[in-house]
Design a protein that fits this description.
The protein has 252 residues and is of the alpha+beta class. It folds into two domains: 2-125 and 194-251, Quinone Oxidoreductase, Chain A, domain 1; 130-188, 3-Layer(aba) Sandwich (Rossmann fold), CATH 3.40.50. Helices cover 21% and strands 31% of the residues. It is built from six helices and 14 strands. It has helices at residues 41-48, 116-119, 147-152, 176-181, 196-216, 232-239; strands at 2-7, 14-19, 29-38, 62-63, 67-75, 87-91, 99-103, 108-109, 130-131, 134-140, 154-162, 185-188, 223-228, 247-251. The longest helix has 21 residues, at 196-216. The chain is globular, with a radius of gyration of 19 Å. The chain starts with a strand and ends with a strand.
Length: 252
């Protein structure tokens, strides 16, 4: 199968689109024919960290892609409620390939009204509720340089959730008076550091809370641009210009 591989180099990783062996289906997993995946900032932090250093064992090359949407082609032992031919979506390791292996507990049905490109973006969907005196929740993927204005925007009892550091700024000042006066709640999220069981529970709650709204159109994934798999390097370069509004999708 064709896949986009993150390959170590002296200046940081680079992409190599080549033919590789298709994954073997293991118990508790499903194999899907990937139709679309999407780019995430964390992918490029990992790519840039694949730097070869003299005297050290080089990092291992790996298939990129943290999510995928497509049709089930094979199910592993112990998997129930999913069958070949089902339209599905979910987080995975190795979504930038013609076939990808997903933990069955994290697989969600892809609503018929969503295109493959839209379904590939759903893993990053978020919801925000607006109050009269500020917002109830801020979900931030920029970094510590916007911490102060985000907290200023929160209503009493509001929640601040940090999910990424796109700006690269990881430290900032915290106004503890504002924190106390507004009775604010601060949350840190890292899906990568969660256990498989925790990720499975997160997918279950996501499906229960948001799939109905995705199915009837109340929630709509926003796509900026689509690139074919062979242009993965160009897609990454475009993402890093910070000019996109919405997700950058890889079509496979």
């Amino acid at each position: 199968m064709k896949a986009a591989i993150m390959v170590p180099s002296a200046d940081g990783g680079c992409w190599d689109v080549r033919d590789v062996q298709r994954s073997v289906v293991t118990p508790g997993h499903v194999l899907i024919r990937v139709r679309s995946s999407s780019l995430n900032r964390a992918e490029f932090r990992r790519l840039h960290n694949l730097r070869m250093r003299p005297g050290q064992t080089p990092p291992e090359a790996r298939t990129g892609g943290g999510d995928a949407a497509g049709e089930v082609v094979e199910i592993g032992a112990g998997v129930t409620g999913i069958k070949p031919g089902d339209r599905v979506m979910g987080r995975c390791a190795g979504g930038f390939a013609e076939f990808a292996l997903l933990d069955a507990r994290e697989v969600m049905p892809a609503p018929e009204r969503l295109s493959w490109q839209e379904a590939a973006c759903v893993g990053e969907a978020i919801s925000r509720e607006i109050g009269d005196d500020g917002v109830d929740m801020v979900v931030d993927n920029i970094g510590a340089d916007v911490l102060a204005p985000c907290l200023d925007a929160l209503a009493v009892g509001g929640r601040f959730v940090t999910i990424g550091r796109m700006s690269g700024v990881t430290k900032g000042e915290l106004d503890v008076d504002r924190l106390a006066e507004r009775r604010l709640h601060l949350y840190g999220v890292s899906n990568r550091l969660r256990t498989p069981a925790q990720r499975a529970e997160s997918a279950k709650r996501f499906a229960a809370d948001l799939l109905p709204a995705l199915g009837d159109g109340r929630l709509q994934p926003v796509i900026d641009r689509c690139f074919p798999l062979d242009q993965i390097a160009a897609a990454g370069a475009y993402l890093e210009t910070d000019k996109h509004v919405g997700k950058v999708v890889i079509e496979i």
